[in-house]
Amino acid sequence: MKHRIVVLGAGYAGAIAAGRLAKRLHRDDVSITLVNAGTEFVERVRLHQLASGQDLRPRPLRDLFAGTGVELRTARVAAVDVERNTVDLGDETLGYDTLVYALGSTAADQGVPGVAEYAYDVAGKQSALRLRARLGELDAGGTVLVVGGGLTGIEAATEIAEARPDLKVALAAGGRVGGWLSDKAQRHLRGALDRLGVTVHDHADIARVEADGVVTGAGTEIEAQVTVWTAGFTVHPIAAATTLEVSESGRIVVDGSMRSVSHPDVYAVGDAALAEGAGGGQLRMSCASAGPMAWMAADAIAARLTGREVRETTIGYTFQCISLGRRDGIIQRVTPDDQVTSSVVTGRTAARIKELVCAGGFWGVTQPTMMLPSRRRHVAVPGSSPARG
């Protein structure tokens, strides 16, 4: 009987994990099923481009996994039962021997009234397309407010401002927009925002979102025909509804091999997992974390199934990339534990590097072994669960 591996979610983490497993394990011994709500791989790092009116190249999953032996299942996950080793897809139930949970994250309203009713986001393809359609309805002089001074907010505001110079774009943050960046990077960011005509509202805690703008905690009203919410992400509640050990935020707690600390036949990767990185801090929700986490999980599963040594390495960071439209950017060098340094690349060179990073993220999905030779090994005992060591 084949060992059944089910991967939930075909974002960066899930797609890379499925492809890497297919190149590590022999098809005679395992079946790999990849479950995803849509039929395409979505380049999430480019969704601000899609929202601003640019067209992205379609990435059908059937093309990406053709000839790999990975079975694709288009369905939404309704529930997971980690005691019975089953996944509920609504109209059918899948059984598994090993589960890779990679359902990712979505926009978080942070409990702010009106976000769900009136705000747009760029956390998924459909929500980005919804924002794109709304922006297309705005006449010259229309007002857009992006809430959130992190990477997503900065990229969304600058992309919209560059694509639609006829609009009045503003960016609001609870702290200082880009405040974590080095001094040089912050100066370049402010210059880019000024050049693009983006109005900045620092230290503007949003108390509620309304149909025609927002109200801050201090009672200040900021008018906007369109409010774009980028103030954080949250994971899907499916894991928290199981007996898996999860964090307060609902992320699955994993060890150094991305294996659940409570259920050894479950692995979690990407935004859905709470993992320790360099320096003992938590890995942040990002594409930069998703790839390495997927490699580690896939290699650990393959090693345990084939009776080989499980190698654990600490995931660390190198830089943070920020696009400021299509012709400008910031590459902020960071330490392995994600602390900024004084080393920064800006301007067109940074924009080119950011584009290479985005293209490399997709390349990593299509080449999940990252230049390593494919070594499909036989499972020690087909149909068995991975060793608990």
UniProtKB/TrEMBL annotation:
Source taxon at top rank: Bacteria
Gene3D superfamilies the UniProt entry points to: 3.50.50.100
Keyword Flavoprotein tagged: yes
Oxidoreductase is among the record's keywords: yes
A Pfam family the protein falls into: Pyr_redox_2
Cofactor(s) of this protein: FAD
GO biological process terms, semicolon-separated: aerobic electron transport chain
Keywords associated with the record: FAD, Flavoprotein, Oxidoreductase
Listed GO MF terms: NAD(P)H dehydrogenase (quinone) activity
Residue ranges occupied by any FAD/NAD(P)-binding domain in the UniProt entry: 4-295
PANTHER family: 64 KDA MITOCHONDRIAL NADH DEHYDROGENASE (EUROFUNG) (PTHR42913:SF3), APOPTOSIS-INDUCING FACTOR 1 (PTHR42913)
Family of this protein: Belongs to the NADH dehydrogenase family.
Protein name, per record: NADH dehydrogenase, FAD-containing subunit
UniProt source species: Nonomuraea maritima
